[in-house]
Amino acid sequence: NLAATVRLGTPSGVIPIGATIRRDGGDSTVDRITTYRTARRLMEGSVLIPG
C-alpha cells in the first residue's frame, strides 16, 4: 500500500488531501481519499490514470 499527502492550491489557500493506493500486479486501486469541506465548490470532475 502507498500513502501520500497531496496539496491542492486554491484561491483561499492550500488544502491537504490524503490518498491510500493499493497496487496489485499491474492494477492500482484507490482505497481512500481524505480532505475537509470548504464553504464553496472548488472543482468537479474525474481522474484518469493512464495504464
Automatic annotation (TrEMBL):
<keyword id="KW-0413">Isomerase</keyword>
<comment type="similarity">
    <text>Belongs to the PrpF family.</text>
</comment>
<dbReference type="GO" id="GO:0016853">
    <property type="term" value="F:isomerase activity"/>
</dbReference>
<protein>
    <submittedName>
        <fullName>Uncharacterized protein</fullName>
    </submittedName>
</protein>
<dbReference type="Pfam" id="PF04303">
    <property type="entry name" value="PrpF"/>
</dbReference>
<dbReference type="InterPro" id="IPR007400">
    <property type="entry name" value="PrpF-like"/>
</dbReference>
